[in-house]
Write a structure and sequence with these properties.
This protein is mainly α. It has one domain. Helices cover 63% and strands 0% of the residues. It has 4 helices and no strands. Helix 3 packs across helix 4. The longest helix is centred in the middle third of the chain and has 21 residues. It is globular.
Length: 79
């Protein structure tokens, strides 16, 4: 699904993300979801560290994931 979505929008999957995806059973939806949440949280931390004024999320009907990311950022003191 990730490869299909990235190809449709003309994006590339980074080598780091692809390596992480390859290490997870694609059929284990919870593991893939958690990997995505962790990866997105890391990206957000990097953006905020570099001075981003804020974050904007396109949830694509995945509001739960966004809530998890925000919770992790708050817990770690990044927000």
């Amino acid at each position: 699904m990730t490869k299909m979505l990235s190809s449709v929008c003309g994006a590339a999957i980074s080598a780091d993300l692809q390596k992480r995806l390859d290490a997870v059973d694609a059929e284990d939806k919870e593991a893939v979801l958690n990997l995505g949440i962790d990866f997105a949280t890391e990206q957000c931390k990097g953006l905020l560290k570099e001075g981003a004024a804020g974050l904007h999320f396109y949830t694509m009907d995945r509001g739960h994931s966004t809530k998890q990311i925000i919770s992790k950022l708050k817990a770690d003191g990044d927000l």
